[in-house]
Amino acid sequence: MAASTDSFSTFLTQLVASISPGAKILSDQSSTEFKDSLQRWSDIGLQIPTAIVLAATGNDVVLTVKLAVELNIPFVPKSGGHSLWSTIGPEGFILDLSRFKNISLDKEKKTVTNPLGNGNTIGVVPQALGGGISALSGLCGYTSDNIVSARLVTSSGSLITVSSSSNPDLFWALRGTGQFFGIVAELTMQAHPLSVLGTPDGTVWTGSIVFPAQRVEEVLQALAPMIADESAPGTGLLLIAAPPPTFTTCIIIIPVFFGTASVAEAYYQPLISLGPLMMDCKPVTLVRLNDSMEAFCFKGGMPKFEPSVWPKVIELFEELRRKCPDAGATGYAFEWNTYSPENKLSHSETAFSHRDVKVWAEFLSWYTSPESHAEVYRIEQEVLSLMRQDQDEEDEAAFQNWTRNEPLRRRYRGAERLEKLRRLKKE
Ligand SMILES: Cc1cc2nc3c(=O)[nH]c(=O)nc-3n(C[C@H](O)[C@H](O)[C@H](O)COP(=O)(O)OP(=O)(O)OC[C@H]3O[C@@H](n4cnc5c(N)ncnc54)[C@H](O)[C@@H]3O)c2cc1C
C-alpha cells in the first residue's frame, strides 16, 4: 500500500533525528549521490523511490524498519544491487546496506563475520542467503551451507539471533531462502584454510581454452567425461561467446582446477591435445579467481550434461546475434561442479534444494536496446528447453538467486520443502 506524502515526510523527519551520524538519507532525486546509489547491475524494471536510506550500523537498520512498519511505508533492502528486485517506486524507499563492508575474523572459532562473497561486486549477504554457488561449492559447500549464525531484523523490527540453537527453523530457511525472512544485518560464516585448495601456495589453476565453434562436437566429446568425473578436483565453465578481436563464435572453456599446474595440464590433456586457438591457463591466487567472470546470469540447472544438444545451442546463439546486433557481447555459459565434498549437507538440512544439480546454464545476456528484451528472453528459453528436454519435472531446477519468474516448484524443489517454507513465512 502506498504511503501518504504526509506519513513519508514524518518518516523522514523522525528517521533523520534518530539514525547514526554515519548514515545518510537521500531524497533529492536530481543529485549525483541519489543517481549513483540508484544504480543496479541491470536497468530492467528500474524504478525511482522517494528516498534512499544508507544505513551505517545494525541499529540504523532496526530503527528504519521499526519506523517504516509503524508508519506503513513500503521499502526494499538493497546490498550490491545485482538482482532485478531491489527496486521500488515513489510509494517507498530503498534501505541501502552497501556500507556494511567490515569483515572480522575469529581465528579460534574459525568464523568470519560479514565475509566477502563470490562475484567481485555481488552483495555477500544476499548471495549467501539465496544458496550461493561458487567455484568453491564443491570443496567447501554452497555459501549458505557455511552460514553459522545471523542477526536478523524481523518484519516487526525486532533484532534476533538465528543459528542452529536459536530459532532453528528460521536458520533452516535462512540457508537457501533467506531473502524472504527479514533483513540480515550481520552474517557469520564458517572460514576455511587455504590448504583446502591442495596447492602449496594457495593458488588455483584457471584461465581460458578457446576453440572455434565449428569444432563443437570434438570439444564436447573430450569435455563430457571430465564433467561426468565425480572425483575431479575442479569445476569449470563452458562458454559460447563471440569475443574480440574477430567477433566470431567460439567455445571457451574456463577450468578451475584445485591442484598444481602440472597436474591440471595432465588432467586437461584431452582438450589441450586438440590444439585450441588460444590457451592462457595459469595458477592464480584465490582473490583473482573471479576477475574474468564478472558477468553472469544463472537460469536453469540440470542433473546431467548432454553433449549432443550443443550444435543447436550454437545455432541459437548465432540467431540471437543476427536478430539483436546490440547483444553481441552476450555469452552462454554452462558451469559444472565435479567435486563431491565430504562436508556436503543432506538434501533436507537446509532450504537450498539443488544439491543434485550437475550443470548450471547461465546466460550472460548483454544488450542495450529494450526492444531486444523479448527476443533475448525467447532464445534463452529455447536453449533451456533444449537442455531440459529429457528431464523429469522434479529434476527441473531454477536458481533462486537469479530468477523470481520461474515457478516456485523449480526454485524450491520438493512439496515438503515448499510447505515448510510457506508455514514459516506465515508465522
Ligand atoms: C554479475 C553477477 C554474478 C553473479 N554470480 C553469482 C555467483 O557466482 N553465485 C551465486 O550464487 N549468485 C551469483 N549471482 C546472483 C547473486 O548472488 C544474486 O543476484 C544476489 O541476490 C545479488 O545480491 P546483491 O546484494 O548484489 O543484490 P541486491 O539486488 O542488492 O539484493 C538481492 C536481493 O536480496 C535482498 N537483500 C539485500 N540485502 C539483504 C539483506 N541484508 N537481508 C535480506 N535481504 C537482502 C534484496 O532486497 C533483493 O531482493 C550473480 C549475479 C550477477 C549479476
From TrEMBL:
FAD linked oxidase N-terminal domain: residues covered: 49-113
Pfam families per the UniProt record, alphabetical: FAD_binding_4
Alphabetic keyword roster: FAD, Flavoprotein, Oxidoreductase
PANTHER family: BINDING OXIDOREDUCTASE, PUTATIVE (AFU_ORTHOLOGUE AFUA_1G17690)-RELATED (PTHR42973), FAD-BINDING PCMH-TYPE DOMAIN-CONTAINING PROTEIN (PTHR42973:SF7)
Originating organism: Mycena metata
Matches recorded under InterPro entries: FAD-bd_PCMH-like_sf, FAD-bd_PCMH_sub1, FAD-bd_PCMH_sub2, FAD-linked_Oxidoreductase, Oxid_FAD_bind_N
Membership in a protein family: Belongs to the oxygen-dependent FAD-linked oxidoreductase family.
GO terms, molecular function: flavin adenine dinucleotide binding; oxidoreductase activity
Top-rank taxon: Eukaryota
Keyword Oxidoreductase: yes
Name the UniProt record assigns to this protein: FAD linked oxidase N-terminal domain-containing protein
